[in-house]
């Protein structure tokens, strides 16, 4: 029950809104006006410089007839699904292991989570070196005696995208783990005791009672990881720079290169709008439900 | 110190009317308890007196001055909250001092006022602690201390004892009463606990659905509740409300009840105006009898069969059926046993009658 | 009976073994890139091309660090990362302070001085947290140009502050919501006004969330690449852009040790913050998942 607290004084009444509005104006211009602006550009014939004419959906038609964009969308799909599945499974696994009253939990948690503190550029740089076939993992395993071992995905147009998945999973698992762990800690331990008294074993308890109770955590993780994957740009750029060729192109890199490198501003804007629509389709229902049920408490 | 007048005050949020015409007048030095269940509008009314919520219609006067358009700080009031509302980052001393600092009271006077309040509430040794280091009762004291140093015209208490455990609640209740005696300040006190209302108030306003159901001194509210709602809300166990019929009789008004065995029991000698007697002659009425107004008798009375006994220590609650409803009587321990037939006399001067439709009191 | 007990203890032991085994193996996996970066940065180029990338250096040398910091070439300038590190600091500090201050005020208003439509405003702000920034790059470039701060550090400060406010407002709003309204009422009756309540009561109580907000903003802004690469070039670039240039633009034999040293330098500030105040970092991270 948080009702407004009216203040009688005239100035006092408007003061909160007055203080709120400057930053609000900046943010609303920066978000909503700029979205509209980008949509406008996407409907114009802009190339190197913005041109405010109207060509209908021509840029969208061009976008969807660009093979590079198709690669980008396909890659996004492969990347997002693999990235989500692996990160969630690994994160959940780690959270469950950590929830078994282990020693040095704090240290272990810190180890799994530190990649989140790094820039994707750093992550990309490190993994580029590790995955490099002539000096990286492949070489180490070969030297160990397994001469035929080959791990040269990063130079292969077919497999390079999986390298991006590996690096992204490495960076984000800790995040999924942290949310799952918070969810696990929020579960009333008497539920586990009750199930134990009924004779259920620990794996069984997790599979049929605890994991289903983590539904809100799953929802959050899926939504936030999807968001990370759609906007992921730095990692691809640092790890593969979209290559070999354009085999690891993603919508985010496509937008960037079209706009800033190829002077196709209209197409770039159209691709940005496509990205926004994808994100909005995931985020808006999520925010709506969170705001509605979350209400004012928490 | 001041008189409080609440004249035709209303509150609405959009279409929803939360308070419908409240009229209360509280004499200087009085102790008004707003009593009711949650959602009855009692806290809203208190917030309006404090100036924390707008008044939709009507006026509120403190010490003769209309305060409708004054901000809380200009109303010369102090308030104690249910959650204590102590500023978490300040020490007890700073908490008490905060309001005085804002009012630019010189530091010497401030310290004197703090010392005095701390002594009065026996918390001198707590002054340098943070609220998080205090127990619930101690926090309550600090909250009261913060209100006292302001020396306001009007004290407002918003369910101040609800967060305390039962034992502490009784102690603090006594303390608030003592404080009121000592300071003589006018107090408005919101609670849902009818015992607090009975023990503290000089005036009780029982509220429900944004309407004051009964405004009066506690004993009157208890003895002669304005309607069935008030009758049931005040007193524990609640007043028995038994369907009966007003019948013709020589000895004052008489009501007849149906007994479980099909026979008819009568209670005679109830005070009722001639006009009401004529109007309700041979018509159904609701009969209100407090549990303590039943006594076992060898003479004339109602014969009932005891279904359940609940010993409470000082007395025993006997449950039986009368007029088709469950009725509770407060009897001496071991006065009866389960399954026994018992003849009960009723203190007729304490019986109240209600209209079954409007549920308002008749006599 | 006793065999039952023994087998049960065996199971328990086995279970523990699996748990710790899993945890340790995965910990090694997560530490490996950091290890590789560290050892590579301490090796000479000859050792890198001659030996295994995972071994500890036979001869520890800080040459690569010195080069990455002071003399590595980025584009045509060979001053190392130093100037760009400074750029990042000049960008991060004001942006963190500005966005946290604005967020604290906004959160205070949106939780304690609610007005009609406050929830909608908050919802619209929240969506800003999830904005794919590609969709604002073009207009922002235009705006920065018109404001005359395109390609400059103040320009980046502006951009990061604007988009950071969405997060900081969320942090503070969700934190202040948990502070009882009665505290505000008590302060109002005590005679405190809008600003007094904010500075004397809310802000001192908000210390933990101030730390969370600062750390979150620091990490986000320091690690940002998209805004940096889109709105700056050359000498005004932040460190992430410079790092990417060092790594991607090299001639001759690739100097992996310098690359790794540069990556370590770029990662150092956020890693230090993480080690010192990890608890608050995690809180910021999970705050994004439980909004209300």
TrEMBL record, chain A:
Gene3D superfamilies referenced in this protein's UniProt entry, alphabetically: MetI-like (1.10.3720.10)
Domain annotation ABC transmembrane type-1: ranges: 73-288
Highest rank taxon of the organism: Bacteria
Subcellular location: Cell membrane
Keywords, in A-Z order: Cell membrane, Membrane, Transmembrane, Transmembrane helix, Transport
InterPro entries in UniProt: ABC_transporter_permease, MetI-like, MetI-like_sf
PROSITE patterns: ABC_TM1
Keyword Cell membrane among UniProt keywords: yes
Transmembrane annotation, as ranges: 20-43, 76-98, 110-130, 159-184, 205-230, 265-288
Membrane topology: Multi-pass membrane protein
Family: Belongs to the binding-protein-dependent transport system permease family.
Protein name: Sugar ABC transporter permease
TrEMBL record, chain B:
Location of the ABC transporter domain: 4-234
PROSITE patterns named in the record: ABC_TRANSPORTER_1 (PS00211), ABC_TRANSPORTER_2 (PS50893)
Superkingdom field: Bacteria
UniProt keyword annotations, A-Z: ATP-binding, Nucleotide-binding, Transport
Molecular function GO terms recorded: ATP binding
Family: Belongs to the ABC transporter superfamily.
Entry protein name: Sn-glycerol-3-phosphate ABC transporter ATP-binding protein UgpC
Automatic annotation (TrEMBL), chain C:
Domain ABC transmembrane type-1 per the UniProt entry, residue ranges: 85-277
Family, per entry: Belongs to the binding-protein-dependent transport system permease family.
Membrane topology category: Multi-pass membrane protein
Localization in the cell: Cell membrane
InterPro entries for this protein: MetI-like (IPR000515), MetI-like_sf (IPR035906)
Transmembrane segments: 17-36, 89-109, 121-141, 147-172, 193-218, 260-282
UniProt protein name: Carbohydrate ABC transporter permease
Keywords: Membrane, Transmembrane, Transmembrane helix, Transport
Organism for this UniProt entry: Roseibium algae
Keyword DNA damage: no
